[in-house]
Fold these 2 entries.
Entry 1:
Amino acid sequence: MVHIDHAPVNALSRGVRQGLLDAVRGLEDDASVSALVLSGGPGRFIAGADLKEMALPPDEPFLPEVVGAIDACTKPVVAALDGAALGGGCEIALACDLRIGSAKALVGLTETRLGIIPGAGGTQRLVRLVGVAQAIALVCEGRVLKAGEALALGLLDAVVEGDLLAEAIARAPTVAKRR
């Protein structure tokens, strides 16, 4: 299990990106691990970019590299969303093989609200899940979807009641890799 812990919203700071990249690469090489679960902890996932870093020069690892490592991981990766998965957080979730959320989950590519376009593969992955027309509307509007609507559109694979993390861990070994 990979626990993202960068209060208050798990913004994708350089340290969070590096930690995710190191964890995915390290666990992929661990023969005792059959699947990975990404969790932001109670009430959270990843709420997007660290806006404090937006005025600074770009710093590695860049989000597309992190998302690419999750996508390329040979072991199944499950995203457990118990809160906001917005912007880059949504792109990370979209790279996972299974996305399950609590009733508190929120999902969306909200970069257009800031005048930028999602740049870590989310637009391509979104199209594969919801189709071109729906993806265009979601990205252009920067819509934030509640758990039920995200489930209905196919952005979430399940919405669970009770212990989200326990459910994610239980499902992880049975998840097939998506391509």
Note: DSSP finds seven helices and eight strands in the chain.
Entry 2:
Amino acid sequence: METNTVILFSALFLIGGVMMAKFSSRLGVPALVLFIIVGMLFGSDGFGFIYFDNASLTQSLGILALVLILFDGGLQTEWRRTKAVLPISLSLATVGVLITAGIFGVAAKLFLDVTWNEALLVGAIVGSTDAAAVFAVMKGKNIKRKLQSTLEAESGSNDPMAMFLTLTLLQLAIGEESFGASLFLSFFWQMGAGLLIGILFGFAASWAMKSIDLGSNGLYPVFSIGIALFTYSMTDLVNASGLLAVYAAALVLGNTKSLPYGQTIFRFHDGIAWMMQILMFIVLGLLVFPSELFSTWIVLKGLALSFILIFIARPVAVLISSIPFKFTMKEKAFLSWAGLRGAVPIVLATFPLLEGLENSQLFFNLVFFIVMTSALFQGTTIPYIAKRLGLTGPEVHIPSHSLELVSSTTVNAEMIPYTITSSSKLIGEELSDISFPDKVLVSAIIRQDELIAPSGDTKIKVNDVLYILVENQKRSELEKVLGIRKTIGG
């Protein structure tokens, strides 16, 4: 394709993707489904505009996209909420993935004419939930924070387990590896070193952003992208889990107090994550051939295996993984249902394709079909299931306005947003009656998408978003008044 044609299609995909993301929220359909459908329509089996069968390029783009999506997910994750559910999240991300892969592998052996190693390989590929799908579906929903934090932390940390199992079983299938103690040591190294490197890089990035005046607010988001890519590549260089390191680094950075241009960085990465989702899922749609994907054989086998995954493998994995933790049966049922599959299984399914493994095309088509089934069947019903189980919280209000103090590391103040929740002790209080520290000013209040100029007799209401100007040295005092707990980066 000519350069201008590539640019034109890229523009159409991005503009169309943004429109579909808005449209999907109204329909209740995960945006990834619409992106994939667009890719299939533009591909050789659709309108025939683009012929694309480059699995290697798809894999590289997929990993790049996952790095940036996970980084955005880590930035948006609140440590004070996540630390309470971290044990069960890690249990689901390790033991849960292993159990899911094992049960699905047994089913694949029964339904498909493949070896045990190949069956378990397919199980490993679909074993993990997907961060891109989970973050997108959960965003803005009024699902109980404990459950939402559990699912987000699980999806952000279970990719290393799935990738380790996939690559190990693939090496066994092609005869380059054998079972032994080295496999277990390799797993603990990947997880442990990946987590440690990510935390160290996160604190280093936080220190650098606070200490170095880059001179322009536009350079801070660019610097953060460099941190994400550098963290992944350096961790992968020592054969540790780069994806886990990226998520851990972003978690530290996103919970850093007084991060220069924090809101600018967060909004920038939110946009980058959406762009990566659009391009990644469209490319994945281009790679698959609908005539093969929707053949009678693939549909029948795919539906049977999807049923096993959704109604047997995932629930059993959740039940066993959550035994030591205090979760009700309704909460466990919801965690089972919300185990969405997405880009990660499809990207992992490209590894057998590149190795030329027998039945690799069959595995890719089956995994793709299962992901589509999961997104359509589970993704569209998550809010309904949560409501039926009584696991919803107060309505989430996302303000359409945002304010940020244009400052740098040389300015000793910042503008912070604070949302008044139903549990806030400030509800009903007038601003003049709140004991704010000296030199703290409530500059604006967003109420039901309207801007209010505050005065002393302005009463605080639920879902108000207060934009508060505060000197850096007064922030700790302000957080005590607001009831904010200390974060890991503070």
Note: Residues 258 and 292 are 53 Å apart (CA to CA).
